[in-house]
Amino acid sequence: MEAVLAHLRDAIERGEYAIGDKLPSEAELCRTLEVSRPVLREALRALQTMGLTVSRTGKGTFVVASTVEDPTFGDYAASDLLEVRRHVEIPVAGYAARRRTPENLDHLAHILDRMEQETDTTAWVAMDTLFHLAVAEAAQNPVFRRVIEEIRDALARQSAFLNELGGRREQSNREHRAIVEALIDGSENDAVEAMAHHLDRVETTLTDIVRSPRTDTPMEGGPEA
């Protein structure tokens, strides 16, 4: 999928497909690139998330930008989502360290154990959002949970995007483990620092994906998939 995405993104950025152009049909792209339809559709979804294309039902996929600026996840731009996450989730981690109950810690540990054993990206992403909800619950303020619930879909989309294109899963597991350990210790400072580091890494990976079309990935006739 990364190779297909890099190939199509490079073609758009080089002007092979100009703004307003319609991309070839899925059948034609699958045939040309020699990839399966599910792989192609993942790449097309990523192009749309990056803001390079838009899919119009019954008409096809059209190019709407020639460079990547600010990906969107559901209803929210990546920059807006990250700004809110920093202002909400970092202090929430501090409150959670002070207020968490044994039940909160058991729940977080259970989610984390499952995440560290999970190999399916879709299942892992679902648990990733549950993890952040559980941290909000541990802060013992229902408003915090409501805020995370509001952005839950965007969080899931962002998580899937970062894992598929940035290989974030193992690194994210380690960052989540550090957050849980800080909550277990009841250390507000450590919890705040661990969550801040986690969000820093999210931003770094996202920036790397946006800046690098990965044109070093070979895509001549297309790898079999």
UniProtKB/TrEMBL annotation:
UniProt keyword Ribosomal protein present: no
Residues in HTH gntR-type domain copies: 1-66
Transmembrane segments: none
InterPro entries referenced in this protein's UniProt entry, alphabetically: GntR_C, TF_FadR/GntR_C, Tscrpt_reg_HTH_GntR, WH-like_DNA-bd_sf, WH_DNA-bd_sf
Assigned keywords, A-Z: DNA-binding, Transcription, Transcription regulation
CDD domains, alphabetized: WHTH_GntR
Protein name: FadR family transcriptional regulator
Species of origin: Streptomyces purpurascens
Gene3D superfamilies xrefs: GntR ligand-binding domain-like (1.20.120.530), Winged helix-like DNA-binding domain superfamily/Winged helix DNA-binding domain (1.10.10.10)
Pfam families: FCD, GntR
